[in-house]
Amino acid sequence: MADEIFHDRRLAELYDPLDPDRADLDAYLLVTEEFGARKVLDIGCGTGVFALLLAERGVEVVGVDPAGASLDVARAKPGADRVRWIHGDARDLPPLQVDLVTMTANVAQAVVDPELWRRTLIAAREALRPGGRLVFETRDPARRAWEAWNREASYGVTDVPGFGRVESWVELTEVTGPLVSFRWHYVLDGAGGDDADEDAILTSDSTLRFRERGELEADLLAHGYTVEDVRDAPDRPGKEFVFVACRPTSP
C-alpha cells in the first residue's frame, strides 16, 4: 500500500519541490554506466526523477510504482513518453529482460511486508537477464536514523509555485522492532491560525523496515542472487548499505 503522500495529488506534486537535491541518484547513474546497462527497470519509480534521467541518456527504462498520483506527476514531465510507466508493484510486471533493476532512496525499506519483499526479489530476478544486476540501498539499523526524525531537525519552509509557502516537518510515531513509523506534516499557504482551512493541513504516515546486512544477504542468496558487493552510499557515508546483487548466468 502506497503512503498518503503518493495517493494525494497535491502531496505528489509537492514531493519534488520539497526534496530538490537528488544527488543520491548520481551513484545510480554511475552504476548504470559501470555495468553498461541499456535496459533498466526502476522499481518504486515515484515521480520519475531517476527514470527520466536515464531516458535522457538513451537508456530504455520501465518505471513501476503502486502510487497513481506519483505516476500522474511523472507522466506530465518533459520526456515522459520515453519511459514505459506501469501502475502496480513488482508483481504486476510483464515479461522483461533488463540489464539492471534499481530501487533507489527508501524503496526497499518501504516494502515492509515479508511476503511482498520476497515476491519483489523474485520478480526483480525474473526481470533480469542472466548476468544482470539488482542494486538497492537501505539504511544501517545500527545508525538509528529515526532518532533525528523530529520537528526540530526537519522543519522547513519552501516557496512552491502553484502552492505558495509550504511548511513541512516529520515526527517519529512508533518504533516496533525493525518497523519505524513516522508522520510528515504539511501546512499550505494561509493555513495558520484558528481559522485554518483543514484542506490545507495535510499529513502522510509512513513505515519503513530496517533490515540488518546479514538478513539482506541471506534473503538475496535464498532467492537466487549472488551478492557481488555491499557498498557505502556516497551521499551518506557510513549510514547506508548499497547492495549489488547479480542473477547468475547459469541456474
Summarize this structure briefly:
With 251 residues, the protein is α/β, with parallel strands linked by helices. The chain folds into 2 domains: 4-141 and 212-246, Vaccinia Virus protein VP39 (Rossmann fold); 143-209. The protein has helices spanning 4-7, 9-18, 26-34, 49-56, 68-75, 107-110, 114-127, 151-154, 213-222; strands spanning 39-43, 60-65, 83-87, 98-103, 128-139, 156-160, 164-176, 179-187, 201-209, 226-232, 240-246.
Please provide a written account of the structure:
The two termini are about 35 Å apart. The chain is globular. The strands form two sheets. Strands 3-2-1-4-5-11-10 form a seven-stranded mixed β-sheet, with helices on both faces. The chain has a four-stranded antiparallel β-sheet with strand order 6-7-8-9. About 30% of the residues lie in helices and about 35% in strands. The protein folds into two domains: about 5-140 and about 210-245, 3-Layer(aba) Sandwich (Rossmann fold); about 145-210. By secondary structure, the chain is α/β, with parallel strands linked by helices.
